[in-house]
Amino acid sequence: MLAVLVITFFASLFLGRYIISPKVVFFILLDSLSNSRSSLYEIEASIVLGIRLPRTILSMLIGAGLAVSGSTFQGLFRNPLVSPDVLGVSSGAGFGAALGILTTGISGISSISAFAFGILSVFLTYMLAKTRKEVSVMSLVLAGMIVSSIFNSLISMVKYVADPYDKLPAITYWLMGSFSKATFDSLKAVFLPIAAGIVILLLLRWRINILSLGDEEAYSLGINPKRIRLAAIAISTIVTAASVTVVGVVGWVGLVIPHISRQIVSVDHRYLLPASCILGAIFLTLVDIIARTLMSAEIPIGVLTAFVGAPFFAFLLKIVKKGKGEW
To answer: Burial letters for 224-238: b for 16+ Cβ neighbours within 10 Å, e otherwise?
Structure first.
């Protein structure tokens, strides 16, 4: 998997509407590491270092974050159909970004608004699910559906009142997801929360194994399931919200990749989470390559992840039904 990840990384640097030779890409990267810039490949260097390198790193980072969050949620809720936006993160962040675009149109404010509303949506979900000082898994899922529905209706309201010639296209395109505006500045803004969140979730992977057995088993093994579940949900929420703020809503990654990883490594989260991390980075980078090379105009990344992810999920469903695999 790591070998495929490295190959995908370099392929993303030389593939595109303007194809650059792998030898030239290697020469450019070598020059950048040695702090020397050759005028021989000046145009190619500006494309590789200024456009494709931050875009590739960002796609791998977000793919890994969404996949690890998806695996974590499916383990916590013991439900194979759970994805990172089950608690309303994506819909809340989508509303925040749409509201920011409608009111200001400034990308920085829209990103902050998206992140804030993504966190707010999970807080509302948790408070709504809390009954008698306890929060059950089922109540969290149901509360997440309610909060997602509310924020989706608010997104529709924002789109309805937006200027159809200026604001509405920007909102619609953002909601479909895209890496077209990826820069080192946007990478710096989300690198720390996503990377730190991935590392923490990987450190919690053996506890997620215990939580997947049920609360009674967790208590008998000396683990507080409520505290661990709350911490894992909070970290996964931050990772998902940070991802949505820079590229928009990207679906199916956190749902499909964990299932593919299970077919490869097993249901043991000690291996499942690292495998999901690597496969998520590979998957989203490959989809991004297709998005910017398939047509003359770039295809929104959310459209392609759904188009590629849904058949994968249908194929995995057939495998499980035939008894050749396990959730």
So the answer is: ebeebbeebbbbbbb
Lowest average pLDDT, out of 11-15, 197-201, 292-296, goes to 292-296
Query: Dihedral sign, CA of 323, 65, 9, 30?
Result: negative
**pLDDT band at residue 278 under the 50/70/90 scheme:** very high
Joined tokens for residue 249: 């809503």
Alpha carbons within 13 A on the beta-carbon side of 125? 34
Give the architecture (CATH level 2) of 64-321.
Orthogonal Bundle (1.10)
Nearest-angstrom CA–CA distance, 193 and 239:
6
C-alpha 227/C-alpha 225 separation (Å) is 6
CA distance 85 to 145: 10
Q: What are the CA-CA distances from residue 170 to residues 51, 89, 90, 99, 302 (Å)?
A: 21, 20, 17, 11, 15
pLDDT digits (tens, 9 = 90+) for 224-277: 888 888 899 899 989 998 998 888 888 889 888 998 898 899 889 999 999 999
CA dist., res. 114 & res. 96, Å (int):
4
Backbone phi and psi for residue 199, each to the nearest 5 degrees, phi listed first = -65, -45
Query: For 109-157, what is each residue's pLDDT tens digit?
Result: 888 888 899 889 988 988 888 765 666 777 888 888 899 999 999 999 9
**Residue 110 CA: distances (Å) to CA of 102, 121, 161:** 9, 16, 17
Query: Is the separation of the CB atoms in 231 and 287 below 8 Å?
Result: no
Hey, where are the domains in the chain? 64-321
Query: DSSP 3-state assignment of 268?
Result: coil
Q: What predicted TM-score, i.e. pTM, was given to this entire model?
A: 0.89
The identity of residue 153, as a single letter, is S
- In whole angstroms, give the CA distance from residue 135 to residue 144: 12
**Phi and psi angles of residue 134, each rounded to the nearest 5 degrees, phi first:** -130, 150
Query: 202-220 b/e with 16+ CB inside 10 Å = b?
Result: bebbebbbbbbeebeebee
